[in-house]
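Progress against Task 2.4 (sequence-to-structure conversion) is shown through the following example record, which the project officer requested during the mid-term review.
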Amino acid sequence: MKILAFETSCDDTSASIVQDGRKVLSSCVASQISEHTLYGGVVPEIASRRHCESIKKVCKEVFKRACVNIEDIDAVSATYAPGLIGSLLVGLNFAKGICLSKRLPLIPVHHLRGHVASLYISNIDLSPPFLCMIVSGGHTHIVDVRNYTEMQVLARTRDDAAGETFDKVARCLGLPYPGGMYIDKISYKGNPCAYENIPRPEVEGSKYDFSFSGIKTFVINTINNAKNRGQEINIEDMAASVRFAIVDYMVSKFIMIAKELGYKKLAICGGVSANTLFRDTMKKECKKLEFKFFMPKLEYCGDNAAMIGSQGYYEYINGNISNLDINAFSSKDISLR
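Structure tokens generated for the chain above:
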């Protein structure tokens, strides 16, 4: 079964053709980073306009790369939630148009379920159940993946997401957008123990949940205090310390939850799963505990349509097909279809 997929939840316009949920025949991503860098973050209005300009191009490109025709496509999937509403509507409505003209079924896909599916196209032998940590600019979730279409959130951030925290800290340090990538790069030049008192807060009433806002506040206060004293902050040391603190916080909590719930098969996905320290630390911890560990290939960590096509296959198998009147949603729980 060949599925044509679209992902436009934020600032990347992506199309892909995926076969049987596991084989990526082609994938194309049109990035907007260079433009949004000028503003230090994603501007929703600009993002949706650029999606309108790029979506036809990426669609034509994936057919060219896969050497298939529209007649070979069995269904169309598109991200419908969560994300920037203007951006989501571009991809979803483009998919609707194809479904209407070619009489193909439409498969709406939850963006975070798509990130989980990035693991399937990267690890051919992986199958549920497993415990998954989804970490991106807008989300930090620990999810019980019971089967391909049944998932339950066990823990989440109560404020900033991990990726969002990286970006905000990077801005405080004068680093370009997207900040997480630059923090990861310069951290190797710094001392991760230079600022040992970076908080790893516990959330009152929920030992599983995260809170990252204190890390951002710590950096802001440290920088301001240094300026008031006429001192300079070592950017590499601060970047290395923040990266170590965030990764240590995420990994220690993830491992704790896995132990308490009896999971021995763990996975990470989402944009922050490209962080080298996060990947390496999870590998080491899981090896030490004799846990099975899975992560996406680097090209599938960020937003991409291949993961939407993969999850679309499993949603289709489970009968999750939509009418063409379905709307997009800026927020939606991963457990809801």
